Amino acid sequence: MATSHNLTATPAGSPPTPTATSTSSSNNNKNNTVLYLAYGSNLASSTFRGTRNIHPLSSTNVLVPSLKLTFDLPGLPYAEPCFANTHARDPGNPTTDDPAWKHGLVGVVYEVTREDYAIIINTEGGGASYADVSVRCWPLARGLRDVPGEGELVPDGGFLAHTLLAPAGRGRRGKVVLDAQPSVRYKGLLTTGADEHDLPASYRVYLDGLPAYRITQWRQGVGKVTVIAMFGPLVLGLIGLGKVLGDRHGRIPRWLGDVMTVVFKVMWAMYEVVFKPAFGDGEKTVGSEQDRGERTSLLCEKTRLRD
Hints:
The protein is built from seven helices and eight strands. By secondary structure, it is of the alpha+beta class. It has a single domain, classed as Hypothetical upf0131 protein ytfp (Roll), CATH 3.10.490.10. A hairpin with a 3-residue loop joins strand 4 and strand 5.
């Protein structure tokens, strides 16, 4: 029998309520903390504890069979083509999974204060990019070789945690991008964070094998400078304004979110019509195309050798 996996939306503007407590928390403070599932750059301590100055009370490695990792949230072409996102997954239909990983999302659940959770919301777009949803997570021990199979999970077991998900077609670009590659810098945050938390070895091998965007032609470098010069100050200014205008839950005013959406849509429309024809591909490394079957075989072999 298939395991039931819950995924529900949190009403906009409402502060999330923790649905489970970690082993380090007492019953007295559980209502003052939030369980937050990280799967992207927030896995890395340099981002989570450093750049964002978040101080989690505890952390737990988890498996989320109802979600899968994607990289379809657009950033800046040539510089940061895309960022991590996650979409609903049907555990009973593995044909929709990446051939190299068929086990759902692996991440880390942090227990954070409500004040820190507001900072997380604000630094992740203030509600303009992601929706706040609750998902069921199954704890994983550190240092596992692989994740448990679907049949090994206790139905309706685990606990609920909040995470951020950008629904398909929402926001920045107006269309779903399936083949964009994260930058080398951004991918490095995921792999470093996975190592820091000692996530399952098979998942770390999967992350290691993900392609990353690299500039391989001089005109792409010119495109990067052009895009950053034209849109960088505006994007940074809007992000800074969001920090100033964010409410106590970290959410920015709707009008500011709409402005951000328009800016990104204009930028990516210009990329398709002007930048890409003039400067080349700003989403995918030229000459990096690999046969998916060969990549899967390579990752399987690396997993065997890593054991």
